[in-house]
Amino acid sequence: MAAITAADVNKLRTMTGAGMMDCKKALTEADGDFEAARDILRKAGQKIADKRAENTTSEGFVAVAVSEDGTNGKLVALACETESVAKVANFRELVQRILDAAVRTNATSKEELLAVKEDDGLTIQEHITDLTGKIGEKLDLTYVTLTAEKVASYIHSDSKKGVLVGLKNVGSADVAAVGRDVAMQIVAMKPVAVDKDGVDSATVEREIEIGKEQARAEGKPEAMLEKIAQGKLNKFYKEQTLLNQEFVKDGSMTIAQLLDSKSKGMTVSDFKRVAIGA
């Protein structure tokens, strides 16, 4: 059995960031083999991840990056179980590592991003698993990317909500300013689509049926139910689709009117909203 010194334990701790006692236990089990000890620590992290798989992750941190030419945005959100973990340095460093990997590789999906291998030989998934082992909490990654004529981004003050919004026909408009206003609208009002054409058919059918049932419960004649339901559907579009929503900073105009006032014909092509715990 190899003798495990305090220097050995500290070396493994520096390499992995794991706790002193965990490092000592891993080195003892590996008979002083550092690579084997690292594997043991990673397996321990996976066991913790499996054990906590059903736990709720309502805290975390969002980070975003927009390309220099402003045509692509990437947003990562790493969720955890407690607010205290979301504030520690190694948690936020991991979020930045993940975002950097997304930008470097131009990952198009969460699965692709998790498979990215870093210079240390570990994948992003393995880094997440490692941190799970160190902090003892479930971690859950969300990743979205958006390409448009111009992309604006916004992270809410709680660092738990973020938006990417794609704009087109921007002309000479101040993309950063108008994009921020629209993104803040998206965070606050949670639109389901850009406009009515983007609402899926299942949602439309459900809203029509709800409208009919409400009208029927109010004693309206059967012959009027369809017309009443269509009226309620139009109200749904106004309240739940971005371009038709009233601008939260100025209720006298819709988002569509706001954009058009900044540059004739400017509109939103797409948006991505991510919220941790909501």
TrEMBL record:
Statement: the UniProt record of this protein carries the keyword Protein biosynthesis: yes
Subcellular location: Cytoplasm
Coarse class of the protein's main subcellular location: cytoplasm
Domain of life: Bacteria
Domain Translation elongation factor EFTs/EF1B dimerisation stretches: 74-277
Keywords: Cytoplasm, Elongation factor, Protein biosynthesis
A GO molecular function held by the record: translation elongation factor activity
UniProt KW Cytoplasm keyword: yes
CDD domains per record: UBA_EF-Ts (cd14275)
Pfam families linked to this entry: EF_TS
Job description of the protein: Associates with the EF-Tu.GDP complex and induces the exchange of GDP to GTP. It remains bound to the aminoacyl-tRNA.EF-Tu.GTP complex up to the GTP hydrolysis stage on the ribosome.
Annotated family: Belongs to the EF-Ts family.
PANTHER family attached to this UniProt entry: ELONGATION FACTOR TS, ELONGATION FACTOR TS, MITOCHONDRIAL
HAMAP family documented for this protein: EF_Ts
Protein's UniProt name: Elongation factor Ts
